Amino acid sequence: MTAALQTFGLSKHFGGITATDNVSFTLETGARHALIGPNGAGKTTLVNLLSGVLAPSAGRVVLMGHDLTGLNPEARVKLGLARTFQINQLCASMTTLEMIALVVAERLGLGARLFQALDRQDAVIRETADIVARFRLEDILDETIATLPYGKQRQIEIAAAFAAKPRVLLLDEPAAGVPEAERQELLNTVAALPADVSVLLIEHDMDIVFRFATRITVLVNGKVLADGPPQAVASDPRVKEAYLGEAIHG
Amino acid sequence: MLTLLFDGIAYGMVLFVLASGLSVTLGLMNFVNLAHGAFAMAGGYAAVILMQRFGVPFLWTLPMAFVLSAAMGLLLERLLYRPMYAKSHLDQVLFSIGLVFMAVAATDYLMGSTQQIIRLPTWLQGRFDVLGVSVGRYRLFVILLCGLLALALQWGFVRTRFGSRLRAAVDDARVARGLGIPVNALFAFTFAMGSGLAGLGGALGVELLGLDPTFPLKFMISFLVVVTVGGTSTITGPFLAAMLLGIADVTGKYFVPQIGAFIIYAVMVVVLLIRPEGLFARSRT
Amino acid sequence: MSDANTALQDRIRTSLSATRRWHPAEFVFWALAFAAFFLFPRQLLILNEIAIIALFAISLDLILGYAGIVSLGHAAFLGAGAYAAGLFAIHVTGDPLLGLAAAIAISAALGLVTSPLVLKGNDLTRLMVTLGIALLLHELANSMGRITGGADGLQGVVMKPLLGRFEFDLFGKTAYLYSLTVLLVLFVVARRIVHSPFGLSLKAIRDNRLRAAASGVPPARRLAAVYTLAGAYAGAAGALLAQTTQFVSLDVLAFHRSADVMLVLIIGGTGYLYGGIIGAIGFKFLQDWLSALTPQYWQFWIGLVLVVFVLGGREIIHGGIKGLLRRVPFGRSRTKEGAQP
Fold first, then answer.
1. A217: which strand partners?
2. C72: helix, coil or strand?
3. Are C231 and C69 within 8 A, CB to CB?
4. Which residues of C touch B268 (CB under 8 A)?
5. How many Å apart are CA C283 and CA B71, to the nearest integer?
6. Beta-bridge mates of residue A144
7. Is the dihedral of CA B165, B166, B172, B173 positive or negative?
8. Which residue of C has its CA nearest to B99?
9. How many beta carbons lie within 10 A of that of residue B282, not counting itself?
10. End-to-end CA, chain B
């Protein structure tokens, strides 16, 4: 089985700081893979490297056989890699509908069309309707995103990433900042993602991790400390020390 | 040749004094103040009026121009500029352009549109020879005075406690506030100082750069070039940039008069493309 | 389930078409604009000026309001188009439409060539670079006096009759209808574009470039495209100016042109195209009224208006316009939400 996403010796240095240290890991096809680690471990940096927001100092990222070196974020999206951000990154003045329709239109290659009206593109409308229904966004379809509560925005954040029909989806702390009341719906959404999409989930919340993940990678100080099935990782003494050590000092 | 260099340095020195205030306000308050030249103009006109109508000796007009412009800066900062800090750069630009239009028209109305002439005291007039190089007395005076100012600014910026507070506030205003640094007072004081320096530069520059109501518009781009090429995080950056610009402008106009200002704009565009933070800026990752 | 799905699709279709459809008020507006030809036969020269300013403002709105690109030197394209049209009339042919096409092509090329410069750096860099380019062109035009006429301006621009039949007369009859028609055509095209997928992607880039890229939008390419388009539109305005006045003054590249057009958008509002037209009308009235009051120092009052508007007046006026639009029953009026740059 070809891996969905692989990194080889991925490193990132900022001046004197090494944020990512020789990370080599594999995301299997159809995986439900969690990436955990203490604060400042470099998880978001890693996601930024994978999605192309940052260029690595060394190493490679390979997506389903494609070498992503030198490709900017939009090119990676076209190849089937999508991500959500730790803090919502949405287009505040757009409506929910516009946000989703944008991603769908781009995916269908219509993004550069100057003279075609969006409402006449049946394919766009059909796919947008599917996403809206799947993520239960009907009620907030015409609301401006800036006016929506954070939890709803988070829902849109995931829907927008999903609308790109990615083969690999990187979710950066999807539950972060979401009030308790809205968490469950969000987590159900994540759990309901189709089986053929490979998901890398970054999370702090261990409940979510153990409920969702079939494989866990632990990142500490930019290095991979442990990688394996949940139980193995949970009982790994080095992992315990990394977290406990964090608890004492942190 | 060397005379040209010398003249260029003198020109650059005045530019530096003029632009230094803008550099600090931009770096400190992240505020694009295109009206900076208006404060310079005020200092220049103040010096002229003091000399011509009140018979104040030239040397005394310099500190008075400084004080006047500083006071004006302090007043305007509290009244007009403060609400603009939070707005977008575009809004700030439009706001300061509006101020410039007002300043230019008001000066035209009050003082007429002719070039102002300053009559330098006799000991500052004329030239003398140093090792075969013709040196203008006034230019030498300007170089010495501005050089001292530059050193003082650098010392104040780098070595005093005020300087380090300023630098802290430049790096992160929120954190600085959290540390107990009175950021608002700092801003007000710095803005006043910057405007005062502009006024001083304006007074010094009457002889070298000329003075008429269109001064802020004419030289706006020069200040901006100094600040963008020199960066806003140091004193030495704008200093070097001003030197470069002064020498380039004087030699350019001498050798290729038709091109003139063209070089400055082209240089600025090219520099901004290569290093958007400025040629001499401390790079921030 | 397909019933619910079809209903949802219809709902989506309706929502997406809501702002694209022409509102009756728009037809009324344009009818009035053409009617002005008959209603104000002695003000046609001023109306012509307004149409040209409006086109220039729309071109700035395309980059500022829709794409979020700040520019302090948009006059560069106005000037490029004006000089191109003027020189074309002198050296090639005085046919207005051919000259217009040439001017559009040249200023579009200028836009394309300078777009990489505008894409780099932050807002401040952009302000400086655009200012620098405009000043560069101004210096160029000033020093190449043999070609451009320098500070005296380009003279001898003689226009042939429009479409072979309509002479450019002293009263501006041909001029106004010509400018207004060009404005209308380009407006319709721009309206189409901003409601297309391309236009939506511009909005995304403006709001959140990170999100746009993460959605598959190539920001650099789209921004370059809209910058080129805006250059073409501004060039058209410049050409109209040159052709209807049969003269090109160096002033067309002056800094105040760039500042004035921004004031126009401040008055009218950005992000909904009509802001350029409304702003142009407002600006022209303001300018004329002020010049009548103080012929020499009206720039002072323009400066004051700028300051007041930016300090807070802008919100008051736009709030008022928004309120008015909401009362007109054309379905959801989404013209101005989040439209400020």
1. A35, A227
2. coil
3. no
4. 128-129, 132
5. 34
6. A95
7. positive
8. C303
9. 11
10. 41
- Per-residue pLDDT tens listing for chain C (341 residues): 567 788 999 999 999 888 788 988 899 999 999 999 999 988 899 999 999 999 999 999 999 989 889 899 999 999 999 999 999 999 999 899 999 999 999 999 999 999 988 887 777 778 888 988 998 899 889 888 888 888 888 988 888 888 888 888 888 889 999 999 999 999 999 999 999 999 999 999 999 999 999 999 999 999 999 999 999 999 999 999 999 999 999 999 999 899 999 999 988 888 889 999 999 999 999 998 888 888 888 889 889 988 988 887 666 666 666 666 666 554 343 444 333 33
Orientation of helix C44-61 relative to helix C274-293, angle to 10°: 130
Tell which residue, A171, A228, A209, has the closest CA to residue A36.
Answer: A209
CA dist B174 and B127 (Å) reads: 52
Q: How far is CA C297 from CA A21, A94, B42, B104, C224, in A?
A: 65, 43, 18, 9, 39
Nearest to C5 among A107, A111, A133 (CB): A133
One-letter amino acid of C222? R
Task: Please report the sign of the dihedral spanned by the C-alpha atoms of residue B175, residue B181, residue B185, residue B187.
Answer: negative
Evaluated on CA atoms A29, A35, A40, A44, the torsion sign reads: positive
In terms of residues, how long is chain B? 285
What single-letter amino acid sits at B37?
G
Secondary structure element (H or E) that encloses residue B72, with its range:
helix B58-76
Closest by Cβ to C136, choosing from B87, B97, B266: B266
d(CA C154, CA A234): 81
CB contact under 8 A, B261 and C139: yes
Give the count of beta carbons closer than 10 Å to the beta carbon of residue B122. 8
DSSP β-bridge partners for residue A215: A33
Query: What amino acid occupies position C254?
Result: A
Q: How far is CA C97 from the centre of its chain?
A: 19
Closest C-alpha to C118, from C39, C63, C168: C63
Rounded Cα–Cα distance for residues C192 and C66 (Å)? 13
Predicted TM-score (pTM) of this structure: 0.87
Q: Using CB atoms within 10 A of its CB, is residue B57 exposed (0-12), middle (13-18) or buried (19+)?
A: exposed
| Nearest CA-CA partner of C334 in A132, A137, A156, A144 | A144
Q: Is C68 left (phi over 0), alpha (psi -120 to 50) or beta?
A: left
- Cβ of B121 under 8 Å from any chain C Cβ? no
- Residue pointed to by tokens 């400390």: A225
User: What residue type is A170 in one-letter code?
Assistant: L
What string of DSSP letters covers A202-243? E-S-HHHHHHH-SEEEEEETTEEEEEE-HHHHHH-HHHHHHH
Residue whose C-alpha is closest to residue B213's, from B15, B37, B12:
B37
Q: Give exposure, A191-222, as e/b (b: 16+ Cβ within 10 Å).
A: eebeeebbbbbbbebeebbeebbebbbbbbeb
Q: Which of these, B151, A109, B92, lies nearest to C311 by C-alpha position?
A: B92
Beta-carbon pairs below 8 A across chains B and C: 123
Structure token digits, residue B173: 């205003």
What's the gap between Cα C85 and its chain centre? 18
Neighbours of C109 (CB within 10 A): 16
Asked if the Cβ–Cβ distance from C305 to B98 is below 8 Å, we say yes
Q: Is C113 exposed, middle or buried (0-12, 13-18, 19+ CB in 10 A)?
A: exposed
Say if CB B237 and CB B280 are below 8 A apart.
yes
User: Measured between alpha carbons, how far is A109 from C17 in angstroms, rounded to an integer?
Assistant: 20
Structure tokens at B218: 């004419």
Region of B30 please: left (phi>0), alpha (psi -120 to 50) or beta: left
d(CA A76, CA A52): 7
Minimum-distance CB partner of C297 among B32, B105, B272 = B105
